[in-house]
């Protein structure tokens, strides 16, 4: 495989960043995950962290070097994440269970697979057009489906971010399985939270992701969304790739996995320990962060078997 990949998350105007992201790749398979945590402080972050770390851990164990059934892998992985989050809440006797959205994609054999829960989105951009996009699990999207709102009205609706489906809720999540689409040279795949897609138009996404590599386009889109969000800006996160035709070696900013061994996997993710806002918080001690990290690791060890 050969691709260019970039990921970035920003705090926005919020006190803390509850978004989490990761990508992981073997010689013949690539996983990307974005999660948007919800809940009391140091709980939404934990829900999102469990989700990205557990999916990455499962991928590392099962990508040998490909995932046998990508859609089933994501669906089963999301359910394990839900159980791990719910178990965390029970162990801490939390009155409000931490929750998170998740969108995940796998690329292997030149084919894109995806699934999601909530309103974090996946976009596939080809020839200046969005040719595939996830459907938000929100009340506003339901109104669009019923013909009560147009797609344009939905993008401006004040309640567009109220969702009914997530990991960690009292009810089992409905993991919506996406399509199975062969990728073409030059395609761009973007996974992002509502803080990002809510601050830019689809036309801007199409223009930037077609005209520029993700290394440049994604920071520019995050800048635009952050400025527009102003003092109410949500956390913003995106993971994107430009897909390239197979080549023996990487060139420029692209990656080639050809030389990786069957069991070799590379993973990049953001953690609680690397969250600057958490470290500087007066409400959360280093001991709190360390305890949360230990809890996350215990959950991963338990549910990644």
TrEMBL record:
Q: Which GO terms describe its molecular function?
A: protein serine/threonine phosphatase activity
Q: Which organism is it from?
A: Chitinimonas arctica
PPM-type phosphatase domain: residues covered: 4-243
- Coiled-coil regions, chain positions: none
Enumerate the InterPro entries for this protein. Answer: PP2C (IPR015655), PPM-type-like_dom_sf (IPR036457), PPM-type_phosphatase-like_dom (IPR001932)
- Name of the protein this chain belongs to: Serine/threonine-protein phosphatase
The domain of life is: Bacteria
């Amino acid at each position: 495989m050969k691709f260019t990949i970039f990921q970035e998350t920003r705090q926005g105007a919020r006190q803390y960043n509850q978004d989490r992201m990761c990508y992981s790749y073997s010689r013949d398979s690539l996983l990307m995950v974005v999660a948007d945590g919800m809940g009391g402080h140091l709980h939404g972050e934990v829900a999102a962290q469990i989700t990205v770390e557990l999916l990455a851990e499962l991928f590392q164990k099962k990508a040998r070097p490909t995932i046998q059934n990508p859609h089933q892998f994501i669906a089963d992985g999301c359910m394990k994440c839900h159980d791990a989050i719910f178990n965390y809440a029970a162990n801490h006797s939390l009155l409000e269970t931490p929750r998170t959205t998740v969108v995940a994609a796998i690329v292997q054999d030149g084919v894109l697979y995806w699934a999601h829960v909530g309103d974090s989105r996946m976009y596939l951009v080809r020839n200046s057009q969005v040719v595939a996009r996830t459907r938000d699990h929100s009340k506003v999207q339901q109104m669009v489906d019923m013909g009560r709102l147009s797609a344009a009205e939905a993008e401006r609706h004040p309640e567009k971010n109220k969702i009914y489906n997530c990991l960690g809720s009292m009810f089992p999540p409905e993991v919506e399985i996406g399509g199975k689409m062969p990728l073409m040279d030059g395609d761009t795949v973007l996974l992002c939270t509502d803080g990002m897609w809510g601050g830019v138009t689809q036309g801007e996404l199409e223009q930037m992701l077609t005209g520029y590599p993700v290394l440049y386009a994604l920071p520019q889109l995050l800048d635009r969304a952050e400025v527009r969000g102003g003092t109410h800006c949500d956390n913003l996160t995106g993971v994107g790739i430009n897909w390239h035709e197979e080549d023996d070696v990487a060139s420029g900013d692209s990656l080639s996995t050809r030389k990786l061994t069957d069991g070799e996997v590379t993973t990049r993710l953001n953690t609680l320990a690397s969250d600057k806002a958490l470290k500087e918080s007066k409400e959360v001690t280093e001991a709190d962060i360390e305890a949360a990290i230990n809890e996350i690791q215990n959950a991963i060890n338990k549910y990644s078997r």
